[in-house]
Q: What sequence folds into this?
C-alpha cells in the first residue's frame, strides 16, 4: 500500500511539473500593432477573421487585462466596427489557429460590448468552439455571467475551459479555437490567452465514422488511418450534439498504440437500451465499466428500470418518449498520458 501511495504521489508531482513546464500565457504586450499573427513559446499563431477584422490592438493603453491587472495589448475587432452603425459586424467571429503545433486551452479573458465598445450591460452570447483539422472537437455557448462594466476586471470576463457550462474542455487537443459573439454583442477583445503546447503529430487520424440504430440497439463503426501512442477509444452519445456522455470503451488494436495502416473498429450496445436514456444510463454504468459482462448486464437492467422510472416521472401522464428524435455520437481517442482528441460528430441513422 505504501509503495502504491508513493508512486501515486510521484505521478502527481510529475504531472504538476509537466503542466507548469508546458503551459504559457500570451499577454500580447510584445506583439506588433495590427499584426494578424503572434508567437508564443516558439509557436506561430494566426488570428483568423471569420467575421469582421481582428488583429493585435496596442493603440489604447490600459484597456487590456492580463488576468490580475490592466495591460496595453490584446486582440480585438475595433477596425471593423462603426460608431454610427450599431448593427455593424453581426456575430463577430475570430479563430486563433496554428498549423505548426497542436495545443490545449486552459483559459482566456474576453471583453464583450456593443459596436462602440463602451456599452457592456446588454444581452449577448459567446460561442466557444475547439477544432482539429476543421472538425469540431467541442462547442459550447455561454449566455450568462458576463462582466457588465469596467469597474470589475477592466470589463473582461474569464472563460475557464476547465468548467465551461459544467464541462471540462481543457484536456482536448485542438489546432483552432473559434470565438463567435451573438445577441447584442458586436465588439470583442481577447487577452491573457493561457494554453498548453502539444506535439506536432495528432495521436490519431480518424477515417470514416458511422452510427446506426435498430430496435434501439446502437452500432458504431470507425476507422483510423494512423495511431500514435494511442491507448483506447471512448464512445460518447448525445441528444443535442453538445453535451456528450461516455457509453462504451474499446482498446486500441495498434501494437503498443502505434500504427501506420488503416484499422477498423466496431462497437454495438449489449442490450436494447432506450436512446432517450443514454445520458442517464451512461452515467449510472460508468463506475461499473470494468465488471464482467454478466454483472454489467444485470446492472444494465437495473439502470434501465431506474431510467424508465425517472423518465416516467418527468413526463406527463400518457406522454410517450420519442425514441426517434435525433441522436449524435463521437469517438474520443485517449492517449497513453490521458490526453483526448475527438472524431467528427455524426448523427445516428435510425432504421425503422
A:
Amino acid at each position: 500500500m505504501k509503495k502504491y501511495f508513493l508512486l501515486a504521489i510521484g505521478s502527481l508531482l510529475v504531472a504538476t511539473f509537466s503542466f507548469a513546464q508546458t503551459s504559457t500565457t500570451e499577454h500580447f504586450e510584445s506583439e506588433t500593432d495590427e499584426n494578424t499573427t503572434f508567437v508564443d513559446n516558439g509557436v506561430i499563431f494566426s488570428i483568423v477573421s471569420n467575421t469582421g477584422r481582428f488583429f493585435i490592438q496596442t493603440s489604447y493603453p490600459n484597456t487590456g487585462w492580463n488576468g490580475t491587472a490592466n495591460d496595453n495589448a490584446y486582440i480585438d475587432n475595433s477596425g471593423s466596427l462603426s460608431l454610427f452603425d450599431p448593427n455593424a459586424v453581426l456575430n463577430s467571429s475570430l479563430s486563433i489557429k496554428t498549423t505548426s503545433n497542436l495545443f490545449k486551452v486552459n483559459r482566456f479573458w474576453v471583453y464583450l460590448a456593443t459596436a462602440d465598445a463602451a456599452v457592456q450591460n446588454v444581452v449577448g452570447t459567446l460561442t466557444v468552439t475547439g477544432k482539429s483539422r476543421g472538425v469540431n472537437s467541442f462547442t459550447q455557448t455561454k449566455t450568462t455571467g458576463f462582466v457588465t462594466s469596467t469597474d470589475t476586471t477592466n470589463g473582461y470576463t474569464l472563460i475557464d475551459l476547465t468548467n465551461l457550462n459544467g464541462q471540462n474542455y481543457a484536456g482536448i487537443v485542438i489546432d483552432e479555437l473559434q470565438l463567435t459573439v451573438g445577441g447584442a454583442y458586436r465588439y470583442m477583445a481577447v487577452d491573457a490567452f493561457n494554453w498548453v503546447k502539444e506535439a506536432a503529430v495528432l495521436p490519431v487520424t480518424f477515417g470514416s465514422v458511422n452510427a446506426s440504430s435498430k430496435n434501439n440497439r446502437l452500432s458504431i463503426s470507425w476507422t483510423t488511418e494512423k495511431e500514435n501512442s494511442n491507448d483506447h477509444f471512448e464512445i460518447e452519445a448525445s441528444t443535442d450534439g453538445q453535451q456528450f456522455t461516455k457509453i462504451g470503451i474499446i482498446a486500441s488494436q495498434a501494437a503498443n498504440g502505434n500504427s501506420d495502416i488503416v484499422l477498423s473498429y466496431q462497437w454495438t450496445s449489449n442490450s436494447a437500451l432506450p436512446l432517450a436514456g443514454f445520458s442517464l444510463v451512461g452515467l449510472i454504468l460508468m463506475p461499473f465499466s470494468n465488471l464482467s459482462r454478466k454483472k454489467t448486464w444485470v446492472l444494465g437492467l437495473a439502470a434501465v428500470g431506474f431510467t424508465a422510472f425517472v423518465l416516467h416521472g418527468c413526463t406527463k401522464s400518457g406522454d410517450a418518449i420519442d425514441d426517434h428524435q435525433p441522436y449524435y455520437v463521437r469517438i474520443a481517442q485517449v492517449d497513453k498520458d490521458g490526453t483526448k482528441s475527438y472524431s467528427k460528430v455524426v448523427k445516428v441513422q435510425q432504421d425503422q
Summary: The first strand starts at residue 23 and ends at 26.
